[in-house]
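Field log, afternoon session.

UNIT: design team B
ACTIVITY: writing a sequence onto a fixed backbone
BACKBONE:
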């Protein structure tokens, strides 16, 4: 009987050892593979979600671009081009002449910014004439297709002794924008 118990113990322990080896050799690597595949699936899902979000942003950007593109001609008309920079000055002089004003335009049209599609050109308008005409001139510039970024406006009476401000000197400084030529 002793022998029978010993044999049973050996058989049971051999069986348990075999089961343990099967668990160690087959089941644990399979569980590790399943965990690795689960992590890979989660990573791929995150990548797909990120690409989906990026695609949505691109769709929105393209839609916005197409909307803006319909206004491209109107937007670019606000800029001076190399072809119409003299016409810009002529337009200002014509507006001043219509208001009986003396106008001097100081603009450095030789400035070029090669880093952007436009160049910011400093401009100073010196105006002399009736104060009401100067105000009307400024109003005409505001509603015209000339875009001037005004930084400073100075208005002084032509005759400091006379408090009626019949005639004045004005100085408007700021910037205009010129589209750069595409090479």
């Amino acid at each position: 009987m002793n022998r029978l118990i010993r044999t049973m113990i050996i058989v049971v322990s051999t069986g348990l050892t075999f089961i343990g080896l099967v668990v160690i050799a087959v089941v644990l690597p399979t569980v590790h593979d399943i965990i690795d595949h689960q992590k890979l699936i989660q990573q791929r899902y995150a990548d797909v979600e990120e690409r989906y979000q990026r695609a949505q942003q691109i769709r929105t950007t393209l839609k916005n671009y197409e909307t803006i593109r319909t206004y491209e001609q109107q937007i670019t008309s606000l800029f001076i081009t190399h072809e119409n920079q003299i016409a810009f000055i002529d337009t200002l002089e014509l507006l001043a002449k219509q208001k009986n004003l003396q106008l001097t335009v100081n603009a450095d049209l030789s400035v070029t910014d090669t880093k952007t599609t436009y160049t910011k050109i400093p401009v100073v308008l010196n105006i002399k004439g009736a104060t009401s005409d100067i105000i009307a001139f400024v109003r005409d510039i505001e509603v015209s297709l000339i875009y001037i970024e005004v930084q400073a406006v100075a208005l002084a009476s032509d005759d400091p002794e006379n408090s009626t401000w019949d005639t004045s000197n004005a100085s408007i400084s700021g910037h205009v924008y010129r589209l750069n030529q595409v090479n």
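LOG NOTE: The longest strand covers residues 118-130.
NEXT ACTIVITY: expression trials, pending approval
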